[in-house]
Prior knowledge:
Number of strands of chain A: 12
Number of helices of chain A: 14
Structural class of chain A: alpha/beta
Largest sheet of chain A: 6 strands, parallel
Distance between the termini of chain A: 74 Å
Radius of gyration of chain A: 27 Å
Strand order of the largest sheet of chain A: 2-1-3-4-5-11
Oligomer: homodimer
Largest interface: A-B, 56 and 56 residues
Order of helices and strands of chain A: HHHHEHEHEHEEHEHEHEHEHEHEEH
Helix content of chain A: 40-55%
Amino acid sequence: xxxxxxxxxxxxxxxxxxxxxxxxxxxxxxxxxxxxxxxxxxxxxxxxxxxxxxxxxxxxxxxxxxxxxxxxxxxxxxxxxxxxxxxxxxxxxxxxxxxxxxxxxxxxxxxxxxxxxxxxxxxxxxxxxxxxxxxxxxxxxxxxxxxxxxxxxxxxxxxxxxxxxxxxxxxxxxxxxxxxxxxxxxxxxxxxxxxxxxxxxxxxxxxxxxxxxxxxxxxxxxxxxxxxxxxxxxxxxxxxxxxxxxxxxxxxxxxxxxxxxxxxxxxxxxxxxxxxxxxxxxxxxxxxxxxxxxxxxxxxxxxxxxxxxxxxxxxxxxxxxxxxxxxxxxxxxxxxxxxxxxxxxxxxxxxxxxxxxxxxxx
Amino acid sequence: xxxxxxxxxxxxxxxxxxxxxxxxxxxxxxxxxxxxxxxxxxxxxxxxxxxxxxxxxxxxxxxxxxxxxxxxxxxxxxxxxxxxxxxxxxxxxxxxxxxxxxxxxxxxxxxxxxxxxxxxxxxxxxxxxxxxxxxxxxxxxxxxxxxxxxxxxxxxxxxxxxxxxxxxxxxxxxxxxxxxxxxxxxxxxxxxxxxxxxxxxxxxxxxxxxxxxxxxxxxxxxxxxxxxxxxxxxxxxxxxxxxxxxxxxxxxxxxxxxxxxxxxxxxxxxxxxxxxxxxxxxxxxxxxxxxxxxxxxxxxxxxxxxxxxxxxxxxxxxxxxxxxxxxxxxxxxxxxxxxxxxxxxxxxxxxxxxxxxxxxxx
DNA sequence: TTTGAACCTACAAACGGTTGCATTTTCCTC
DNA sequence: GAGGAAAATGCAACCGTTTGTAGGTTCAAA
Lengths: 362, 362
């Protein structure tokens, strides 16, 4: 590969002059010299070596991206991370930055932190890190530009971008309550993710505010997967008093709920209302189409990338979490609760009973 | 940030010795010296600079990944590329390689090629490049390790990994034919992608071999998207003689077909059989579940990454395309053609007529 | 005590750029 | 033609490593 010296020799000038021309440097260069150099570059197929430039300029033009590695060493590219990634790539690409996946699994600050000091990236973007990890506090000590996406919402000591899940969950639960549902179940997301924690907390709060009890049997754990959603929903729908509505922590869990409902011949939405969070394409593939909380992932990813690039360029950025508002997308998966009980339950009294009965169960 | 010299000074040794210790170098080092150095490294939080190492060793431990940028400057992370990416990341991660997205749009060999000479990556993985682009031939001239995923299948002059779409399509069409379908429509994928081209070609061949004509009205273009599938399917289903089966070039197109069918009250599979390609999760979200060709993307991505890493490590790799076999996953979206015509059509004769009529149309 | 082998360690030259400063050239002006 | 400012270019140090070679220890055997 041709180096800057090859070009310089070819033109009979020094490497400094070539560098100056290549970078449209501060010093004026005689037009004929410039032309000669540009031609030599073309002829020799010269392109500056990124690593040498990185060394000299102390700037890599690369950002590192880390996808929250929840209790596994595997990076997971799901619909969520793909959406964020896409948005980040578009912003980074426009500004001439590369995006590198950090593939090394996080094994705790002591062991993993030093690898981030290797000067490979100008900054890091951490997406949905586990809340019980020491990752973010540790990374902050490096004093390298850092932006978190969807970290614990009440953590304010880092530059972060997130969706106002708290508000979104309120909207969803209010929707179900206003339809008349009282026996509402929740299938939670991964316990180590901030989003799941918020959704569960706000769910409970809203129910409490509405004076509707939430028996333990109606809150089941899952890991943001269809399979887990299926298992949980099956359990819920086979309860002596099944819920009339299920709040699934994300679309994929909802897909599992649909599966279980179909298997148990529970009709959505007449027998069971379903709401979820994310509004990934799959919510439209499901039949009936899923009522879900639209999460503006593209905005989140773009803004996160912008905040990171600003920091890298030396622009001061406010040290707080920036929130985007989600929106409820009403589709076809919710309805008023069916007063006729499903065959699996007592055929008298129906949900009316369920509600009354439900209250003291708490 | 601490450098190797800081460590060396701290211990009163030379940088060479530190380097030797850090890399478990070839030269023996006295145990107490080693211990002293390791402690200093710990104390100073030293980590070797990746760029300096890259310069000195002429090895970046990074692979570049390019997602086929079809007629747009935007990188698209869809279900397909996400699956490949995930597989690549897992292999690369295990072997200590980083993965960088090449964000610069490809503007032709003349303009874009030199950027790949910047020494940032040890090799490149190109996923589903457009068939009408000069990208691959140009990249090959660089003599940098290169692996293509899903390039034009009949191109044999590069190391490539692909799925035997030809065989897969045969299986799908045979399935439809053996069910008794004769009026089979095809909604094609993006015209600039090899996968789409193969699927259409083999579709036509198989139909020809079976002696079943394929009128032009039954082959409609789409761009591997739900929306395009919806538009095309609507057109097909409103034909005077609608098809009894649709071969969608991928799952997302099939999702559009489902949408159109639901809107037009066409029942799947009794009125219309649908088959597609990919077997992404969405094929199970659809109702009825989609019969589709399972594409082993994880194997493809992993193998592609392995071939690339082998080349980088200097192992000779055969200069050909390696194929993986797809498998038909029979689910619920196909059935024998319904002899009773849909209301939109003549109620006498039904598909029998359609077949007979269809023949001379060719 | 010398000697040679076996070990360690340091020096310095890359790797391919950038950049402040010094130097040369060019072009005016008097 | 001399003088000087401005413009153009060159020199050399530096970015943080690796690595070949040379030099310095240590130690046992002679």
